[in-house]
Amino acid sequence: MNPQTLSLRALLFLGLWQTGRRCLASAPELKIQPQKIAVVGAGIGGTAAAFYLRQEFGPGVKIDVFEPDTVGGRLATVKFGDQDYETGGAVIHPLNLHMKHFIEKLGIPPRKDVPSKAAIFDGKELTFEESDWYIVNVLRMLWRYGFNFLRMHMWVETVLDKFMRIYQYQQYGYSFSSVDKLLHAMGGDGFLTLLNQTLEETMMAEGFSQVFINEVVSPITRVNYGQSVRLNGFVGAVSLAGADSGLWAVDGGNRRVCSGLLYISKTELITAKVTSISIKVRPSKSGTTTNFYEVNYVGESGSSHSLYDIVVIATPLHQGKSDIIFSGFSPLSRLTTPDATTRLSPL
């Protein structure tokens, strides 16, 4: 089985950001060129956001990226001896056009393929072991799982075909005010249904056998995301895409893309943990008011704060993970809407 795939949730973030760029540039509040922008999180979402922000607003805007840990987020590596090993998003799907564009822009080569073979272990014995003969592998698969493998490939391809519509929306500058609306635009009610049922429920409804789910699908979800087949149906489909063919990775580690994006976007990396974000209103001479966002953070030199015209949240808002306090946002639910009004994107 393949290691963890670069999450398509990150691709969703890039999609929301790309499709929202014209919305940002044309919003009434942004008729004046922003002077300072903050991005919270230096994973692939945050560093890509910094890259596109620089493209959108040019060299005149100051972009700060806040990250308390190492750059890369889920694109993490660990060193054993003299070798670095991917421990996060280890492989990238061939349909991830954003990552292809990034490595071309950065001049980073893909990693050379390492020949390998697959095997399936049910906890007691090997139920399948790949051989050097393609026809033998096919016959073994058919004997134990019927056409489930072929049907799984076709089902995942159907999901990916719909997902690829995101690039068409980006090309024509469409924007979406929520993840749900973006998903519905790509996959209709079917994508929204996947959000509300488990992968096991989804695949059972599609007619996959329980043996196939237990012996093939479950190992894929455990290797890719460390979860069982009771994970979210949409995430499960993404996980299965991470066992597809043509997967690739970046030479020297996928996190090199994040570091490279920060470098070419000429952003300032602030090693600090953001603790709170609040709205500040400043009156002008004309009698109108302007909204700013105060970002409070704690770094090596202690607590500090800065004002920004735009804040992009590119870090998980799970309790215990970031614990960012938001003040002055009403209603609070708007924090889940990465649009030009709130200018906050919690993905």
TrEMBL record:
EC number of the protein: 1.8.3.5
Keywords, in A-Z order: FAD, Flavoprotein, Glycoprotein, Lysosome, Oxidoreductase, Signal
Record-annotated Prenylcysteine lyase domain positions: 128-331
UniProt keyword Repeat present: no
Cofactors (names): FAD
UniProt-annotated location(s): Lysosome
Function: Prenylcysteine oxidase that cleaves the thioether bond of prenyl-L-cysteines, such as farnesylcysteine and geranylgeranylcysteine. Only active against free prenylcysteines and not prenylcysteine residues within prenylated proteins or peptides. Involved in the final step in the degradation of prenylated proteins, by degrading prenylcysteines after the protein has been degraded.
Family, as annotated: Belongs to the prenylcysteine oxidase family.
Protein name according to UniProt: Prenylcysteine oxidase 1
Organism: Dissostichus mawsoni (Antarctic cod)
